[in-house]
Amino acid sequence: MNDFSTAFSTALTLLMSGDEDLMEIVGLSLRVSLFAVAIATIIGMPLGAATALYKFPGRKPLIVLLNALMGLPPVVVGLIVYLMLSRMGPLGVLGLLFTPTAMVIAQVILITPIIAALSRQVVEDMWHEYGEQLRSLGASPLRCMATILWDGRYSLSTTVLAGFGRASAEVGAVMIVGGNIDHVTRVMTTAIALEVSKGDLALALGLGMILMSLSLLINGAAFVLNEATAEKSR
After folding, report:
1. Do 189 and 171 contact (CB within 8 A), yes or no?
2. Angle made by CA atoms 159, 164, 169, in degrees to the nearest 5
3. How many angstroms separate the CA atoms of 9 and 46, rounded?
C-alpha cells in the first residue's frame, strides 16, 4: 500500500510539474492517434455512407466484412504491417518501419472499419427517415449523401470519437511496428507496459491517469453529442 501511495504521489508530481519525458510521450501519442483518426475518417465515413445508400453487387458481404473487421486483433494487424514495411517486404524500400508513420498506418487499418461500420448504420437510419423526401426533391445520389452526412454530423461525430478512443488505447500493433523506441516511437500505452516491467510505477501511473482522463473526455464528448442529437430531433 505504501508503494502505491508513493507511486501515486510521484505521478501527481510529474503531472503537475509538466515532466518533459511525460509530455513528450503524451504529445506523440496524440499526434499519432489524431492523424490516424483523420485519415480513417476520410476513408471510412464515405465508405460507410456509400454502403448504406447505394445498391451494388457484393454490398451485403461488404457490410458483413466491415462489421467483422471491427474486431481485428491488433497484434495481427501489427504483424501484417511489419511484414509489409520490413526490409524484405514490398514497402521496405520506404524505410517506414519503427517510425511514427508505421504506427499511424497500423492504427488506420484498425479504426477505419470501426468508423465505416458505425457510419453506415447512422446513415442508413437517416436514409430511412429522409430518403423519400430527398428523392421527391430530385436530389442526385451524391447530393443525398452530402446532405445526410451534413445533417447527421453530430451523430457521426460519435463514430469519430469511437475511433479515437480505439486508437489512443492501442498497444499491440503500435509496439510491433513502432518498436517502443525512446524519444522516437514511445507512446502512452507502450510506455506504460515498459515502465511497469521496469518497476517505474510512478511514470506508468502518471501516463495511466492521463489515458484514463482522455477516455473520460472522449466518452463525455460522445454523451454530449448524443444529447445534442436527441434534442435536435425533438
Report:
1. yes
2. 130
3. 47
Give the pLDDT confidence of 183-226 residue by residue, as tens digits. Answer: 899 888 888 888 888 877 777 777 888 888 877 887 787 777 77
Closest CA to 92 of 106, 82, 78: 82
- Is residue 191 a contact partner of residue 180, using CB atoms and an 8 Å limit? yes
Within 10 angstroms of residue 87's Cβ, the number of other Cβ atoms is 8
Nine cell digits for residue 126:
437517416
Amino acid at 153: R
Instruction: Give the 3-state secondary structure of residue 169.
Output: coil
Angle between helices 153-168 and 20-53 (to 10 degrees): 130
Architecture in CATH of 2-233:
Orthogonal Bundle (1.10)
Distance of alpha carbon 180 from alpha carbon 174, whole angstroms: 8
What is the DSSP code (8-state) at residue 29? Answer: H
Contacts of 121 (CB under 8 A, 6+ apart): 48, 52
Single-letter amino acid code for the residue at 100: P
